[in-house]
Amino acid sequence: MADSEALSSHAGDPVAVEALLQAVFGIVVGEAIQKGTSASEKCHYSIQKGAAFLGLGTDSVRVVKADERGRMVPEDLERQISMAEAEGAVPFLVSATSGTTVLGAFDPLEAIADVCQRHGLWLHVDAAWGGSVLLSQTHRHLLDGIQRADSVAWNPHKLLAAGLQCSALLLQDTSNLLKRCHGAQASYLFQQDKFYDVELDTGDKVVQCGRRVDCLKLWLMWKAQGSQGLELRIDQAFALARYLVEEMKKREGFELVMEPEFVNVCFWFVPPSLRGKQDSPDYHKRLSKVAPVLKERMVKEGSMMIGYQPHGTRGNFFRVVVANPALTCADIDFLLNELERLGQDL
């Protein structure tokens, strides 16, 4: 982001809390006025936790509808803001997502930014998962509009596979907002008469005090891999995700939840006993029980481990996140073969 301030932080939860805190800072709110923030119904749970930690209460978070692909609906965001204002609330922040946890959805940031601009709201983008896509010339269009955000959360320890933990909070603000939010001016730690530029002391800008130098992990990796190396890592992940999808389409018993736009590949494994029985009244109930059984079998065999979850009205399905830079097509083939082997008697 142009003219942004970057500061490393811990995992996604504190980053979300800090973004909320920066938005709250400087807003004068009467005791009878409710404060409000809006987030997609598919947003990360840290938004709710952040509102609770800050004393706003989880009821202050208004859930905005998402479309069938899990992307925030800007028209409903506009509606939620109008409803909140009509009720006497004071909306102050919208949290959009670039790369949702399950479906890997990217919210339409340009349209959301337009809504925020019209209403004078802080736009935070949770790009913890999908932010690294900006390093790819091929796929960075997924984050179009992110340059209009007031704050962005980014976790290099996710898609880029930097060492845990490595997270960053990026701000458009250049007025030293972080220090105004968090600064306690502890003279026994942050002396102002040091022989060097005290702006280098970032410790008073954050919630934590003692900290690891997490940004060093990103710096070292970037120096070792270079921008081209990191871009290749992103593009390879997308290519392997596409390979997985195409191989599934060639095999009986694999049903995609939807065509992925990111590296999250969501699917059901339909065992032999359920194939061709989609019209059966108990089909979805029985299908939802397949993933937990297969997960137990693969873990006990020690062959692999894949996450599963329900999502909205959809029953349990598998979610393969193709992000490990060491993965190959042979690994993808093994995954599919192993699912077929483990589920052949179901």
From TrEMBL:
Pfam families: Pyridoxal_deC. One of its GO terms (biological process) is carboxylic acid metabolic process. Signal peptide: none annotated. Its cofactor is pyridoxal 5'-phosphate. One of its GO terms (cellular component) is cytoplasm. It comes from the Eukaryota. One of its GO terms (molecular function) is sulfinoalanine decarboxylase activity. Keywords: Decarboxylase, Lyase, Pyridoxal phosphate. Gene3D superfamilies: 3.90.1150.170, Type I PLP-dependent aspartate aminotransferase-like (Major domain). The modification N6-(pyridoxal phosphate)lysine is found at K158. InterPro entries: PyrdxlP-dep_de-COase, PyrdxlP-dep_Trfase, PyrdxlP-dep_Trfase_major. Homodimer. Belongs to the group II decarboxylase family. This is Cysteine sulfinic acid decarboxylase.
